[in-house]
Amino acid sequence: MKPIRRSFAALAALLPITAHATDGTAWDIVSGLTTEVGPRLAGSEAEARARAWSVEKLKALGFRNVRAEPFTIRGYVRGTDSAMITAPVPQRLAVSALGFSGATPDKGVEGELVYFATLDALKAAPAGSFKGKLAFIDHAMMPAQDGAGYGPYGNVRRQGPAIAASKGAIGVLIRSAGTDHHRNPHTGATNWPQGAAPIPAGAVSVPDAELVARLAALGKPLRVVLALTGKTVDGLPSGNVVGELPGRDPSLPPILVGCHLDSWDLGTGAIDDGAGCAIVTAAALRAQAGGQALRTIRVLWAGSEELGGFGGDAYARAHVAEPHALAMESDFGADRVWRVGMRIAPAVGQRIVAALNPMGIVPSRSSEVEGGTDVEPIIAAQKLAVVDLNQDGTRYFDLHHTPDDTLDKIDPAQLEQNVQAWTEVLKIVANEPGSLAP
Amino acid sequence: MKPIRRSFAALAALLPITAHATDGTAWDIVSGLTTEVGPRLAGSEAEARARAWSVEKLKALGFRNVRAEPFTIRGYVRGTDSAMITAPVPQRLAVSALGFSGATPDKGVEGELVYFATLDALKAAPAGSFKGKLAFIDHAMMPAQDGAGYGPYGNVRRQGPAIAASKGAIGVLIRSAGTDHHRNPHTGATNWPQGAAPIPAGAVSVPDAELVARLAALGKPLRVVLALTGKTVDGLPSGNVVGELPGRDPSLPPILVGCHLDSWDLGTGAIDDGAGCAIVTAAALRAQAGGQALRTIRVLWAGSEELGGFGGDAYARAHVAEPHALAMESDFGADRVWRVGMRIAPAVGQRIVAALNPMGIVPSRSSEVEGGTDVEPIIAAQKLAVVDLNQDGTRYFDLHHTPDDTLDKIDPAQLEQNVQAWTEVLKIVANEPGSLAP
């Protein structure tokens, strides 16, 4: 429960490496993005300001061929969000609309709130059993170092609203896909099947979900007034920002390092994903410290990741004709790298494992690699080599998609460990003349 | 940063006592108040519901002479709170009006926001220097086991708005008097000198205050739109709830144990002060476990503490003609008791120290005793004996007066340690036939 700042010493003590003197670049980027831009929802005027800021920043840092690459998206424009339990006792809930929620009238919708302890329990409810009612979907997500809970429990957010709608619910509330105990809801996009009519769908904070569960346990019917007035809008402007540190041999395919520039609107996008852009960019620069790298390193600060990976899709469409050598992404906060997974030429992989070993980073025992949402489309299209530097996610879902995603949550010591781990990898792959293919 | 729930094991390990089987009474009270009543702002309809709930609960627990003792107060009725930085970049702030804030129009007031790093810096600003401007008052409160930071840094909230108003400011924002790093502002009452015209006064969360400080450091003028539409209202209904466990000798003056029933409206009043009512009430009952105590124990669940200690004043007015033997209060959360301070007959004090020693509770090295806001007026009027069971306040000001003051923040193991420490003290003082006076 102690604030992050006070746990820096303990967290930094996890890092067995001799401290590298930080050059301040990573902190400067994430501090600038969160302070001078702030929240930057996909498709918004703020995301456009973020692109302008990013182009200037990358140029100032010495990147070449820096440009924004525009595209348009179907986005979500937030309105006013509120939820109030009206029976058996009045209690206000801390709520956020999910991205692509259906809209309520300004005064909201009111009805009985039917409690389900799990997504499976909702699935088992009879079709048509929600006439005039709303569903509440609870779950039991716990923290995990590798973030394993976000798959199954995140499905409550991704799938739950559509399932409730298919059974006739007039609205849905979920326990946030989060592991903290603060009155800050976790937003995020939900999915609707083609042709389905969206219903109002919101997430309440974990303490509010626990309150709903206790009220439901009293055995009296619950009622709720839910007002979520945001709208889904087509044709909103978005875009990626790319820049390069040219290599000594421009004929070799480049190394692509990605992150996303957009953020949810509740916080200021520090850990998700200002930190990722800070890490990959600072490492690309530091990898030149011993001399210009052999291969070009291209950074991709993608737009509109949060609403469906639109930036990654746009990048692949725009650049599929250019060969790439390898792609990596940082999009899991700012806490330390603890594990490396790879799909790469074995001899190169062995050198990476050896370089990361003194930093306490261990090889993954799984053959699965992820790449990340913003680079996955180009990885899939070109069957690229991939290195995953897995970060410690124990507290990631305390902050993810909440108002609490702010600069103070970033531990400078762990941010620096990320930059150094990325630098070690980039120094190897960007100076490898041979094929990186597995 | 880990949520409270996950740190129970670590916190419980601090408790050297052999675990007592909890009777569940304390948890039942604080769970009931937060779930079945919820927030209960002084003077509100919710506080009235809390009184009705409390009368029923105390009767059900076996207390006698249970009644509400009504009085009226000058209260604060919250409106809509919002704050938005508009320059140098748009950034929304998480804000709460302070109690007794002046009201803005619905659209708010707009002006330059002048940053002061400390209350002293504001005091040094020239009179009349705020024409059309608002003040931002920052500070550097840190956590302390004995809560020492709340005195000096809490003065930013108590005194800062009136000082800014005296220099012509049209509004004021402060860094919350808090030690957490969540986007949850800490509300609380502010004070206006007799005859002063209140100005709009709000507190922003600690991460937002840090953002304002970083924006101010950019060197460009800040502008803000502040809307705080709540109102100060006279003649609102409030009241205390009292109940007794009669002693074997009704001629002996009773032991008074206090807490407060009202809470701020942002959270549900779990640690402030549902836990206090839970602790004193459960301990009063458990002190009868070896047989009816010699002296009557009277519980006081005071109303309207948060707005100025109105319940304690009303209790003293109503009961000053009745002799009391000793008064104690619990109003510092639910974390473990670590120290005892006393003003009491020395022989009785020695027995209390000996009884608490096996629980890791040490005697205070200070001669100061506090009693607590709700019992201070009767202590002062009758020069009563006092026992202070000091709780660990290290994380108290992470939660105090915030939306995060919810049931999940209470560690059952530490709550139980409180009940047992109080029981040890009450068994001694309520069975002492001689004078308790120091």
From TrEMBL, chains A, B:
Location of the Peptidase M28 domain: 240-424
Cleavable signal peptide: 1-21
Keywords annotated in UniProt: Carboxypeptidase, Endoplasmic reticulum, Glycoprotein, Golgi apparatus, Hydrolase, Lysosome, Metal-binding, Metalloprotease, Protease, Secreted, Signal, Zinc, Zymogen
Subcellular location: Endoplasmic reticulum; Golgi apparatus; Lysosome; Secreted
Pfam families reported for this sequence: Peptidase_M28 (PF04389)
Classification via InterPro entries: CPQ (IPR039866), Peptidase_M28 (IPR007484)
Keyword presence, Zinc: yes
Quaternary assembly: Homodimer. The monomeric form is inactive while the homodimer is active.
Protein name: Carboxypeptidase Q
